[in-house]
TrEMBL record:
Keywords: Hydrolase. The keyword Transferase does not apply. GO terms for molecular function: hydrolase activity. This is Hydrolase. It comes from the Bacteria.
Length: 231
């Protein structure tokens, strides 16, 4: 068990405290080049590509590759490249792609993990500073605010607002500075060893959780906090 006394916990957003889980109605009207509905396999792959935390998911020309590499710094580039991803993933009709993209960036459509509320309340109740640190190009605060959970979050550190993305050290430094803590006093919890695990480069501790469907991961956040002696 880690005996460090943590003064702050940083949580990743997607695949960590919330997950984008498709509503069947979102994809029901999507059609391919031949006008055929996308089968379940195609729908599943489409959602995987839209939510993958790292790694290029389709072949891109130079223009769209630039947008991909900077997507989480700029909402305009994010929209541009993900509409291209949808096009290459079997959604060639622009109106359908725009409608789906609009849903995917609506934070109120995201599903919290079963233990998210408990960990937010628990960490805040211990007097430990709490931040949500995400590579993202849209404001996720409404996902918390509509549930009253924003009251437990001291800082939202969002890449498109900070101008830096994980695994760059600047975004982690911005987080600890805003929370007023030292890296060695900070635990980062996330679903990506590559992106979130880079918090260790500035001296934070790191705990990995798997980005499983919410029904299959009831208590990973609680377990991570208990293992690191936060709760």
């Amino acid at each position: 068990m880690d005996l460090v006394t943590f003064r702050a916990v940083l949580f990743d957003f997607s695949g960590t405290v919330f997950r984008l889980e498709q509503d069947e109605t979102w994809l029901a009207d999507l059609t391919d080049h031949e006008g055929e509905s996308l089968d379940l396999e195609a729908q599943t792959e489409l959602m995987r590509r839209m939510t993958a935390p790292v790694g290029q998911v389709v072949d891109l020309d130079e223009e769209h590759l630039h947008a991909w590499n900077h997507r989480d710094r700029d909402p305009v580039l994010h929209r541009k490249v993900y509409l291209e991803v949808l096009k290459q993933s079997g959604v060639p009709h622009a109106d359908q792609a725009v409608a789906l993209y609009t849903r995917l960036i609506d934070p109120t459509q995201w599903t919290p993990y079963p233990d998210t509320e408990a960990v937010l309340k628990g960490v805040s109740g211990k007097g430990v500073k709490l931040g949500v640190l995400s590579n993202i190009a849209f404001d996720i605060r409404p996902a918390f605010g509509r549930r009253g959970w924003d009251a437990y979050v001291d800082e939202f550190i969002l890449s498109f607002e900070v101008g830096a993305v994980k695994p760059e050290p600047e975004i982690f430094r911005a987080a600890v500075e805003r929370l007023g803590v030292e890296p060695a006093e900070t635990l980062m919890i996330g679903d990506s060893e590559e992106a979130d695990g880079a918090a260790r480069d500035i001296g934070c501790a790191f705990a990995l959780v798997e980005p499983l469907p919410t029904t299959e991961r009831p208590d990973a956040l609680l377990n991570a906090l208990r293992t690191h002696n936060v709760l």
